[in-house]
Amino acid sequence: MDSVQAKYEELAALDKKHFMHPTSSFKQQQEKGPGFIFTEGKGIYLKDVRGKQVIDALSSLWNVNIGHGREELAEAAMEQMKKLAFSSAFATNSHEPGIRLAEKVAEMTPGDLAMTFFTSGGSDANDTAFKTARYYWKLKGKPEKKKIISRQKSYHGVSVGASSATGLPAFRDFPSLAPDFYYVDSSIEALKEMIEREGAETIAAYIAEPVQGSGGVNLPPENYFKDIREICDQNDILFIADEVINGFGRTGKNFGIENFGVVPDMMVIAKGISSGYAPIGGMVISEPLKNELIELTEGVYMHGYTYSAHPMCCAVALKNLEIIEEENLIENVRNMGAELQKGFNWLADRHEEIGNIRGIGLLGAVEILKDKETNTRFSEPVSGKVVEEALNHGLLARSIVYEGQDTLAFAPPFCINKEEVDTIISIIDQSLTEVKKKGIK
Ligand code: PLP
């Protein structure tokens, strides 16, 4: 056995023994061991311990937006850690990276969004938004306004609060989700009926991803968010936009909601704020909400994570946002997003099974269908097989399968070029052709 393979074997054995993986089938881990053990990354590419290189077509977890291997971020982390690795931002304590990052977020976000509470990721940022919405209504003398409405097919995270708001079926199959979470489909009528049934006086907030990510890259119906904004205003319901995937350029604008011409009361951010180089997320609130909280709060709002506004994470995020701006990466998102859509259309011309092409910016998806006319899917999902085949050709893509979805999703790093987009498309073409040859039903 060569030394590279020996290293893999050694790590694989330890992996099975000690490493409990996130979102993992424990049985499969024991049977198969780790597929890739990644060791380095550059641009849109990842390399594993055995030297195999793959294109990271989902920016890992829709988050490595500037691409892998940017040393400036490592330097920003090192500089901050040498000066001050950690200090608390609890109560009246503060630090410059936190202050500067909060200012930057306020500058980038639309409308009157003004003040950020930092977390370590998206789930805790969503929990923070739900808790803060309920706290706000309690301060206003309406503690019964506590229900949170979210959408079917939504994904908001895995903490107890965030998974209780998540509408994707796989996350609902759990014995004890939190109370006071309700779901609607993506129609305005459904929300109106829900408000009618439950009573606006019991509803704290409505939350939605402007463009749903993990649910299959689903765009909202025409004018949907304009109507949502109006209904929330009419019924005194806070509107929370979950921008964890959409935010910081993924859709070709700073934030996903800007594509739909409205401003939410609260925004939830994570992933793209640091391109995954450091774990950080947050909740942004509007100026009026901020002012009311200041006016109404008398005691301490008992909410703060040890790592809220971790100085190193803030410094890394700031550098990441600086790079996105200086290198006009959001413009590249728009241009390469158009190329990706062209590629999807080319695929649909070559394969009658490719349909329901969707996307905005560098967030895109195609469905695999038995019959495009009737939207019928194959009885055995195909997208997973295509992803498996694509791995043999050096492409790490994402399959999304649940009732009503057999989808391939793509969200490559913002630094991608046309040739690389074409490579992704050509590997999918090849992989689907091979899967079809083996037979699909
Ligand atoms: N919200 C959305 C829209 C997400 O896509 C995710 C993660 O994929 C989350 C929230 C949860 O974020 P995290 O995994 O950082 O807790």
Automatic annotation (TrEMBL):
Alphabetical UniProt keywords: Aminotransferase, Pyridoxal phosphate, Transferase
UniProt entry tagged with the keyword Nucleotide-binding: no
InterPro entries: Aminotrans_3 (IPR005814), Aminotrans_3_PPA_site (IPR049704), PyrdxlP-dep_Trfase (IPR015424), PyrdxlP-dep_Trfase_major (IPR015421), PyrdxlP-dep_Trfase_small (IPR015422)
Domain of life of the native organism: Bacteria
Xref: SUPFAM superfamilies: PLP-dependent transferases (SSF53383)
Any single Pfam family the record assigns to this protein: Aminotran_3
Molecular function in Gene Ontology: transaminase activity
Family according to the record: Belongs to the class-III pyridoxal-phosphate-dependent aminotransferase family.
Protein's recorded name: Aspartate aminotransferase family protein
